[in-house]
Design a protein that fits this description.
Belongs to the glycosyl hydrolase 67 family. The protein is an alpha/beta fold. It contains 21 helices and 20 strands. Strands 7-12-13-14-15-16-17-18 form an 8-stranded parallel barrel. Strands 2-1-3-5-4-6 form a 6-stranded mixed beta sheet, sandwiched between helices.
């Protein structure tokens, strides 16, 4: 395979890096597209059995197609009708009619605790037969891929009935893909894996086998919805709602067999730019009628359409503020149009003043989402989902959890993550993000033992609102490895798995991904491969944090290089905000109620007190909440300035160790994967050294305090 070379910045408009996977080989194993976590070898335990699939529907047909293909490859047998032939595995809808005796008994036991739900399934094994049962076709599809994860263990011994269901009803990926190539952001905004798999140079791509292969990967990790275009909706993209709707319908048709519903990002100004109306005022009857008619046309063409995603009054995007209205007015307008069809509007809470005066220390971007949205709690319709970033700023390597997630108990809230690594190395750097997301999802905004962020997203928080689920910015492009960096595939996989079950251990999820992506039968030394992948990836998020962002400081990135690489003051005197306030005496942003911006007061107790207190604030967030002298002593016993020096030197050492460990896998794993990762690790080490030297030199020159260990600081 010919591999694109590493770059030192974002890949925004990559070429057609690979041909499509074929219909006979949807994982792309026979072509140039990497199979990711669904290589044929992962299906060997299932495909070598005698399998009965029972039930009707498109998704059941998908299950049978998967089973039939696996059995053809691995020597098993696939049937759709129950007969007298012995079986090892039954995958069936509970109302599908006669089942083998062993399966009938297990079906009775599986139903003892009530319905399994639209996406749930039950798995059990007895008398040499493994049984997966579901009430609905989607559940059977997820049960199939659960069997693939279990591998041979699904067919060993006896297993009591175990029921499985997703914690989140909506598990969504937002693609920031442009139809036209944007002059600055390229084909995919914040895309680091080549071009779009949906669009190319102003037109829809017709190689839908690649899209189907993507849907298959999403189903296998638990994602059930995507939006197919950028939240920054430009002129061509706006037309996807009207005269280019057929392009969206083709994508929906390709993804439907894997239970993935399509959503569309729309511009709030659509009645003006598409409908020729003089206004987009949400209370104008003509505007309401326009949205109702446009939405009816969408559902006439795509009956299972999911809904709209809207970025409004944010970073120049149009919104209700133009007409003196608020976000509830704007969101409810679209919700009204979608409600008859069961659709939802995802209204992003990423709203802030992006034309700030850096001289004004009272302006705080962290406050913005809460200030805009918390007063509106209870005013949004039931089919509005307010989509809030997990942190209050913008996907930085370290942020506290956003206080918005505890402030709107009467509103459906979705938590938004960023799988694409905009601020975490742009898929040039290894940065396994599941530990970061897990910390956010298990955070208890009302104190230890109380409801968590995951509970809020699932609808089991302290308020009456239903859950909005999880959403994340996607990291896939048309690169042969899907995500540019082969190890970045783990972030996409882990996002889906944590959306299904936020309580999963990130290390265990990584083990799943390793088992699926690097089956033992394809690896020269499976133990060495597993050990190396864990050594490289387990702590990689914190390693990235060590050589980039100390103690909760963010945005020390290069604006000129689209947020790649260091520029300590790159945003410090910028209209976008101010983030570290470093001077000769100290560093950090005072966000306290007593002397700062008051941001700490947006949190409920006990966190409002914890973050307000200099002595109680967690070290990893110290500079996010407090401006402190360089000599301030952390709980570790180190001063702030020495911590900055030590962590930046340590981060580089850890990357060098990752590179050295990876070299041991030469000849052990797929040479194309090894070469691509080795190439990226070279770039990661170069960039980490640059981060270390620029950050340490900057703070040495600011503080005048030398490194107590006498290391070279320029």
């Amino acid at each position: 395979m010919s591999l694109p070379s590493a770059t030192t910045g974002p890949a925004t408009a990559g070429p057609d890096a690979a041909g499509p996977a074929t219909g006979d080989d949807p994982a792309g194993r026979g072509g140039d597209v990497h199979a990711a976590w669904l290589p044929p070898e992962a299906f060997a335990p299932l495909g070598s059995r005698r399998v009965l699939v029972r039930g009707d529907g498109v998704l059941v047909d998908t299950v049978f197609d998967e089973v039939e293909r696996a059995c053809a490859r691995h020597g098993g047998r696939a049937d759709r009708t129950a007969g007298d032939r012995a079986v090892d595995l039954v995958l069936a809808l509970r109302d599908a009619g006669p089942l083998p005796a062993a399966a009938t008994a297990l079906a009775r036991a599986a139903g003892a605790d009530g319905p399994l739900g639209g996406e749930g399934f039950a798995l059990a094994r007895a008398e040499g037969v493994t049984v997966v049962l579901a009430d609905a076709p989607a559940g059977l599809l997820y049960g199939l891929f659960h069997l693939v994860r279990l591998g041979a263990a699904a067919f060993e011994g006896d297993h009591p009935v175990r029921r499985h269901a997703p914690a989140m009803a909506l598990r969504m990926l937002d693609h920031w893909d442009n139809v036209d190539v944007h002059p600055v952001m390229g084909q995919v905004e914040r895309g680091y894996a080549g071009g779009s798999i949906f669009w190319r140079a102003g037109a829809a791509r017709r190689d839908l086998d690649r899209v189907r292969a993507y849907g298959r990967l999403l189903a296998a990790c638990g994602v059930n919805a995507i939006s197919v275009n950028n939240v920054n909706v430009h002129a061509t993209e706006a037309r996807l709602l009207t005269d280019r709707l057929g392009d969206v319908a083709e994508l929906a048709d390709a993804l439907r067999p894997y239970g993935v519903r399509v959503h569309l990002s729309v511009t709030f100004a659509a009645p003006v730019v598409l409908g020729g109306l003089p206004t987009a005022d949400p209370v104008d009857p003509a505007v309401r009628a326009w949205w109702a008619a446009a939405t009816r046309r969408v559902y006439a063409r795509i009956p299972d359409f999911g809904g709209y995603v809207v970025k409004a009054d944010s970073e120049g995007q149009p919104g209700p503020f133009t007409y003196g209205r608020d976000h509830a007015d704007g969101a409810n307008l679209l919700a009204e149009a979608l409600a008859p069809f069961g659709g939802v509007v995802h209204w992003r809470a990423f709203v802030y003043n992006h034309r700030q005066d850096w001289r004004d220390r009272s302006t705080d971007r962290a406050r913005a989402a809460y200030d805009h949205f918390a007063p509106l709690d209870g005013r949004f319709r039931d089919n509005v989902v307010v989509q809030a970033k997990f942190g209050p700023i913008d996907f930085q390597p370290r942020e506290p959890v956003s206080p918005v997630l505890a402030a709107m108990p009467a509103t459906r809230l979705a938590v938004e993550f960023q799988v694409t690594q905009e601020y975490t190395g742009q898929q040039q750097h290894v940065c396994y993000l599941a530990p970061c997301w897990s910390e956010a999802l298990t955070f208890a905004p009302w104190g230890p033992g109380g409801p968590t962020v995951a509970d809020v997203a699932a609808g089991s928080g302290p308020g009456p609102a239903a859950g909005g689920g999880l959403a994340a910015v996607a990291n896939v492009g048309d690169d042969p490895f899907w995500t540019g960096h082969p190890l970045a595939q783990a972030n996409l996989y882990a996002y889906g798995r944590l959306a299904w079950d936020p309580g999963l251990d990130p290390v265990a999820v990584l083990d799943e991904w390793i088992d699926l992506t690097f089956p033992a039968s394809t690896v020269g030394d499976p133990a060495l491969a597993r050990e190396t992948l864990h050594a490289v990836m387990d702590d990689s998020w914190r390693t990235y944090e060590r050589y980039t962002a100390p103690l909760g400081v963010g945005f020390m990135v290069s604006p000129a290089r689209h947020h790649y690489g260091p520029d300590v003051d790159g945003y410090e005197y910028s209209r976008w905000g101010t983030y570290h306030f470093a001077d000769r005496d100290g560093v950090g942003v005072d966000r306290t109620r007593a002397t700062g911006t008051g941001f700490t007061g947006q949190y409920p107790p006990p966190w409002s007190q914890v973050y307000e207190s200099l002595s109680d604030c967690p070290d990893e967030l110290l500079l996010f909440f407090h401006h402190v002298p360089y000599g301030h002593v952390l709980r570790s016993g180190s001063t702030v300035i020495q911590h900055i020096y030590d962590t930046h030197f340590a981060g580089v050492q850890q990357v060098a160790g990752m590179r050295q460990r990876w070299r041991r896998l030469a000849g052990v794993i797929d040479p194309a994967v090894h070469a691509r990762v080795a190439e990226r690790l070279e770039e990661q080490l170069r960039c980490a050294i640059e981060w270390r030297d620029q950050v340490n030199t900057y703070f040495f020159r600011k503080s005048g305090v030398p490194d107590v260990r006498g290391r070279t600081i320029h």
